[in-house]
Amino acid sequence: MLCLVSLLWSCAAPLGPADVDADHDTEPEPATLTDGDTDLPETPPVDPSGLPADRMVPWQGNVGVEGGIPARPEVRNCVTEDGVPTDGVRDAAPAIRDCLARTPAGHAAYLPAGTYAIRSREQGEDGIRIPSDVTLRGDGPDTILSAEMSLEHVVYIGQGYSADRLVPVIAGGAKGSRQLTLQDTTGIEAGDYLLVNQLNDRTVPVTPVSGWGDGDCSWCDQFSATRLRAQVVEVTGKVGDELELGAAGLFHDLSDALEPTAMRLENMGEYAGLEDLTVVNGEGASSGWRVNVMIEGAANSWVKNVRVENCGERCIDLRTYFYRVEVRDSTITGCIDHVNSDTCYGTEIAEGSNALIENNIYDDTSNGPIAMWGASGNVIAYNYIHDVFRFADRDSWFWPNAWTHGAHTGFNLWEGNDFAGLNFDSYWGSSSHNTVFRNRIDGENAAQGLVPGHVEVAAIIVETNNPATTIVGNVLGSQGFSNEYQEVDTVYWDTNAIYAIGVNGDNGVFDSMFRHHNYDYVRKQVIDCDDAGEPGCQTGDPNVAIPPSLYLGAAPAWFEGATWPPFDPEGPVVSDLPAKIRFEATR
After folding, report:
1. Which pLDDT value is given to residue 31?
2. Cα atoms in the 13 Å half-sphere on the side-chain side of 321
3. 488: closest CA among 468, 502, 475, 477?
4. How far is residue 243 from each of residues 175, 182, 296, 560, measured CA to CA in Å?
């Protein structure tokens, strides 16, 4: 049985075939921005002064679909014009593929309410691949794409894997630089995308070596985990061998000693969207490598207002390679396998940059958003993460529901989320320079059954080899439950802590942390970076007020009158997110 319909869905009825030109012989109408977009040009600039500049990147205006998700006109009804069956029995995949192929660029293909069985493979491709410049749009949650056989992917966005030559970088490798000179730019033009990386820097450390003795993360990147500090960039101009990059510039310094290189991503789809429907694994499906929505080799593409249900190994998977992808306003819920490891990740984010994961509900999955190897410059914001944990060992071990996992993530922002626990782990290696800003992290999960005897409980866990972590403006822990401020340089603890820092070996993790202006329910006050016992202010200024956001200049329209910012350590203020309001309205 499918879960109850969410109030998330838009009340506006999609256009039917009578509302559009059936001949499709006119130019597409100019795209307009949807109400959910945050990337508006009139937005005032964010002022991050007072925070350590070496850890900040320009997230504002540089995450999610550039210019906002377009509100595309519908020009093709896949049922009436292409004969797509809606009975949930006959295979609908071939006809949906035909409908998408016949939809003009800049427009949307429309699926009315109904159940569309996805059964077949075509030329080695399974599920439904959405072409560049086309949106697949349903009529809300009652438009159901249901996978009824063992498919690797149910819906696929992007053009897949790239493996071009590595070209040496010879100039322009400073943090923030928008110019990059390569040894040879043959075949690279404005509009292309590059993977920029360098050899691992063990002084950070950038390392694939497990902090728990489980070997190297050899599967982390296509270079045997030797070039983990990576970034996907857009080429916006070219003069000779000098390239102009997108507005975000480089996130970190490139070092000649670490042999920096750039690789053209030859397989990149653009501006493909999935909207207003449900993607579910049908009855009796096994997890296998079953991804409900796969995004691979994609730029400026999106998943919006989608219900992802009964997830396989991944619910929504951003992977190898992506740039400015957006996942928003969606509900991710339910698992085929809720027990074992490496299953039912709510949203995996790996080997890509500048994604925006915003205003989503995660409920009854094994993980929420999880930043994997090579993820850089992404924003995970204003998501409500509810009853998310793995069932294995649930009666003894606290399960954080947002993670870094796999090496090496960096310069990612967690902002404004409401959830139980965040873990910068070292199971497959390191991460660094990540920021946790104005979240509500309560350090407990009532549904998990946290009773005396549970161990390794903390709102924020920062394991070994995770230096330069920034934690600012959060409300942490729970009244009457949290009973210890921090555990440092430990492997095992049995308190309900606010922080567990340097787990399995400090290795400079504590001393490099910038922890400022957070409220916690153990000390019951705001703690600043220059207070006694804190790691110190690094290069930050404790006297400068923290801004409401690090990527939004003002409250976005989709906050719809909810308190902005929702979480404030002064007070403290803890308000309901729009995603939480939507979720509770369906209970």
Report:
1. 41
2. 26
3. 502
4. 15, 8, 24, 41
**180 Cβ contact list (under 8 Å, min separation 6):** 169, 171, 172, 173, 196, 233, 242, 243, 245, 250, 262
Query: What is the distance between the terminal CA atoms of the chain, rounded to a whole angstrom?
Result: 16
Task: Assess if residue 327 is contained within a domain.
Answer: no
Residue 371: inside a domain: no
- Give the 3-state secondary structure of 273-318: EEEEEEEEECCCCCCCCCEEEEEEEEECCEEEEEEEEEECCEEEEE
Q: What average pLDDT score do residues 408-417 get?
A: 97
Phi then psi dihedrals of residue 90, to 5 deg: -70, 150
State pTM to two decimals.
Answer: 0.92
pLDDT value at position 285? 76
Contacts of 573 (CB under 8 A, 6+ apart): 475, 563, 566, 567
Residue in 316, 330, 375, 317 with CA at minimum distance from that of residue 351 = 375
Cα dihedral sign, 524-528-532-536: positive
Widest Cα–Cα separation across the chain: 72
Which residues span the domain enclosing 260? 166-264
Q: Which residues contact 473 (CB under 8 A, 6 or more apart)?
A: 437, 438, 516, 517, 518, 546, 567, 568, 569
Tell me which residue of 31, 56, 203 sits closest to 134, measured CA to CA.
31
22, pLDDT greater than 90: no
Which of these ranges, 117-131, 134-148, 267-281, 294-308, has the smallest mean pLDDT? 117-131
479-506 pLDDT, tens digit each: 999 999 999 999 999 999 999 999 999 9
Round to whole Å and give the CA distance between 196 and 229.
Answer: 9
Helix then strand count (H, E) for the chain reads: 3, 47
Q: Give me the pLDDT at residue 10, please.
A: 31
Phi and psi dihedrals of 394, rounded to 5?
Answer: -65, -25
190 occurs within a structural domain: yes
pLDDT of residue 519: 98
Residues 6+ apart with CB under 8 A from 347: 315, 316, 317, 318, 327, 332, 357, 360, 362, 368, 369, 370
User: Average pLDDT, stretch 66-83?
Assistant: 97
Number of domains in the chain: 1
Q: Whole-angstrom Cα distance, residue 148 to residue 55?
A: 46
Q: Is residue 357 part of a domain?
A: no
Rounded (5°) CA angle 136-141-145 = 55
Strands 242-245 and 230-239 come out as antiparallel
